[in-house]
Amino acid sequence: MMDLSYEQSRPVADLGNIHVVSIPGSGKTRVIIAKVKVMLANGLTGIYLVTFTNKSADEMKERLISECGKSALEDVTISTFHSLMINHFQKYLPSYKLLTPEDKTSILHDIFVKHVKGHEGFSQFEDYVSSSNKSGNELFEQMNEEYKKYLHGKKNNTLDNIVSIGVQLMEKGELPIFDCDYLMVDEFQDTDIDQIKLIIIQGKMGINITTVGDDDQSIYGWRNALGYKGFKLLEKNLNSRQYMLSTNYRSKSEILTPAFTMIANNKYRIEKSVKCQKGLGGRLVHYHFPTRVDEAEFIVQEIQKESNINTMILARTNANLSYVETELIAHNLSYEKAGGAKYFQNTPCHLFLSTLRSIDGNSEHGTQRMLDILFNGQDGDRVEVSAIHSKSKPPSSLTPRQQAAFNGISNAYTYLKAFQIDRALDELSESLSIELEFLGYKFWERIPDLAQCLQRLPGNLTQRLAVFNQQTKEVESNIKLMTMHSSKGLESDRVFITCFSNKIIPSTRVNKGVDPTEHVEEERRLAFVAITRGKKEVILTSCENSDARKGWFGPSQFIDELGEIETHDYSKDKRKN
Ligand SMILES: Nc1ncnc2c1ncn2[C@@H]1O[C@H](COP(=O)(O)OP(=O)(O)OP(=O)(O)O)[C@@H](O)[C@H]1O
């Protein structure tokens, strides 16, 4: 049996309806697994354990198998609300018409083809499907609207809202409640109104309910997670005993104390007492720089000083990580990127690199492909690679803009052959990005960043391109980059949080219909989640200015809310001038 503290052992031993409120790093998973183990040892069966993602369901299964053996899975079903409900429909209402994920993809593809100007066939639709950050983007919003209209028109139900339909049918008595005796819900703060209603119905009909969660870690408001409100709703509707897990086993108190000082600014939260098991000896520090480039350079220098420490680098959005990514690549340091493509992994950057590879390797294929895309190569008036090589005049069939691009590419070729790499990269980058922007490609603006990154690398073109070959492989590394959202549930000895700046966190983008105070509270919880990932060291970096569109940055307002912490202000440092 795993070691459990007294505090952890109480909810484990209580087999009634219970509601566990926890703090970060308090061993929630350990408690859940230990509880299931005790239940199985007492001969109890029919246990459903709900998690929020398939990934966490798999992790839970692994933990359970290692603690209780494979046979445990005969009595314990571990899955998401969504899959539970799909199975339930298949069992009790098999003829109910629901759209499958394949149906949805095909409908979306049709909408995409109809609405995207100058799109590049299925490859860009795949970009749409795989993009993890769709909300707020005009095209995605438009597609969503069209999709909703489609569903409404057809009166179809989709697998997306199966939980909501299931709840409605259960309420009307047209669908039985779940076939289990015990329902356990992990990450309860992430439940939305339908999922909470579902839990309440099961509870009222006699199923034993255990919920575990931390309202301070509710960061999915944009996916309708109710967080604190959900805790209150459950309390009102279900008679359950509440337990607190208030000992943190992860972080040093120099990290934990400021994090809780900051989160105490939230009005809508459950008050908690906090004990720090790891005691003193850690560090939470803030560095303020003139620009984002300085921030990135500092982070990479720190990593180079002590490269064997497990490190997470977090930011509010994937785009905020771009400077650090570029800097890591420029120093040939490999890193993992969780929950999103690497900064240069997109069609425009691939096209740029494959053109360079083709010129470097004296093959025509990559260059010809690029020319076909840029100049719309139909067999008849195709711009051939040989025309670029021989510095001929641009074909008269091209528009003036295309002719300028043709000349730029041709110059780039000449410079490369003369080993003037920097000039070649500038020429090619300009031509390609202008044309790809015109053709409506997403991420065209990353090409100049890629060119700059290549300019900073040492060696000849072959050696520089080899760095990118390495970077696009899936490598294992102790440096992990991800958004603050993706860091939930993880921990690391050292955590950098970059772009901890005003206007970035709290983000200036408030979702439609969200109250501004609630928005700041959610952003504060996000900062809280990110900071509490650190075991020994948390390093926050911010900058004074860099983005002309967004104007002045300065440190995030949350820095002051952390109380007295070590701060280094290099924002007036003139070394960059
Ligand atoms: N009783 C205990 N004694 C020693 N270490 C413990 C104990 N309980 C948990 N831990 C350790 O504390 C760390 C945090 O545990 P865990 O990740 O399960 O916390 P959590 O509550 O899920 O955190 P979070 O909500 O922040 O993701 C882990 O490294 C875990 O092994």
UniProtKB/TrEMBL annotation:
Gene3D superfamilies membership: 1.10.10.160, P-loop containing nucleotide triphosphate hydrolases, PCRA, domain 4
Protein name: DNA 3'-5' helicase
Catalytic activity: ATP + H2O = ADP + phosphate + H(+); Couples ATP hydrolysis with the unwinding of duplex DNA by translocating in the 3'-5' direction
Top-level taxon of the source organism: Bacteria
Pfam families assigned: UvrD-helicase (PF00580), UvrD_C (PF13361)
Organism: Thalassotalea piscium
Residues engaged in binding ATP: 22-29
Family under the similarity heading: Belongs to the helicase family. UvrD subfamily.
EC number: 5.6.2.4
Keyword Kinase tagged: no
Residue span(s) of domain UvrD-like helicase C-terminal: 253-489
Gene Ontology molecular functions: 3'-5' DNA helicase activity; ATP binding; DNA binding; hydrolase activity
Residue span(s) of domain UvrD-like helicase ATP-binding: 1-252
Isomerase recorded as keyword: yes
Enzyme class: isomerase
Biological process annotations from GO: recombinational repair
Keywords: ATP-binding, DNA-binding, Helicase, Hydrolase, Isomerase, Nucleotide-binding
